[in-house]
Amino acid sequence: AAGTLGRRILEGHSPVKIFNETVQVRCHVQAIGAFSAHADQHKLVSWITASNPGPRRIFVNHGEPESSLALALKLKDRGLHAEVAEPGVDIPL
Predict the structure, then answer these.
(1) Which helix (H) or strand (E) holds 71?
(2) CA 54, 27, 5: angle at the middle one, nearest 5?
(3) Which residues contact 47 (CB under 8 A, 6 or more apart)?
(4) What is the CA radius of gyration of the chain?
């Protein structure tokens, strides 16, 4: 959405402020314009597996714990490195 941190990152702004800390953006961000923000598991798996090049690591960070784990496992079954992000855990990128 316009005016959000996510939009600033999507538009290529770097550095950005996150919780009053200046952070360099060092990742590729891509908008999913063709899907609802609440895409189902099948649509998400299809989109991710069709990506070229595909992602090296996937962090599932939204949804009920059981659903997040199910999505990560489905992605792992397709040979992708997927895991559920844990609250409060730093992940070096």
Answers:
(1) helix 65-77
(2) 120
(3) 32, 35, 39
(4) 14
Return the beta strands (E) in 1-93 as ranges: 16-18, 21-23, 58-60, 82-84
10 Å Cβ neighbour count for 76? 13
Which tokens in the block code for residue 71? 């999505």
| Direct distance between the N- and C-terminal alpha carbons of the chain, in angstroms, rounded to an integer | 25
Q: Are 34 and 50 in contact (CB under 8 A)?
A: no
The 10s digit of each residue's pLDDT in 61-87 is 887 888 899 999 999 999 999 999 988
Query: What is the Cα–Cα distance from 16 to 7, expressed in whole angstroms?
Result: 11
pTM of this structure? 0.59
> What is the DSSP-derived secondary structure letter of residue 28?
-
Q: How many residues does the chain have?
A: 93
The CA distance from 35 to 14, in Å, is 26
- Tokens 């992000």 locate to 85
